[in-house]
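As agreed, record passed on underneath.
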Amino acid sequence: MLDDPPDHIINTWISELAHCSLERLRIKPPGSWSLGQVYMHLVADTSFYIEQAKACLNSSDHLTEEASPIAQIMFSNNDFPDEIIEGAPSNAYIPQPESKEQLIKELLNLKEEINRVGVLISQTTVSGKTKHPGLGYFSAEEWLQFAGMHFRHHLRQKKRIDAFLKVMDS
């Protein structure tokens, strides 16, 4: 099983919500998402990763397929490259959160689902792989590892937004 399950980093994101009002979560720095949009993106993408992990556990398809060389390096480092990554065009339409409570509820649900899938992974002897849109084929365990890496990657973006908000306050 994973050395650093994604549910631990989700706790960090939940605790960070205590330091921010809904209004502050919705402030958009120029050319960037608001913090609230970052949260919404994390919830949506992690939900997709969990569904992919479940699909892997319900099939033995694509067993011999590989992650791309870039993804293999990312998995080996257990981290995304330290750079701003231009996402899919659909990322331009990330909504603002309705409430902090909504974010907390959705993050707690993700933690629960990740833990549930983690148990299934530990009990499954054969599982397939599903295709990431740009990084090749991932196993169920790799999808969960990717989720944690994705949360940590966005902590860098959060730091940039926090710095903008701090300057705005002064």
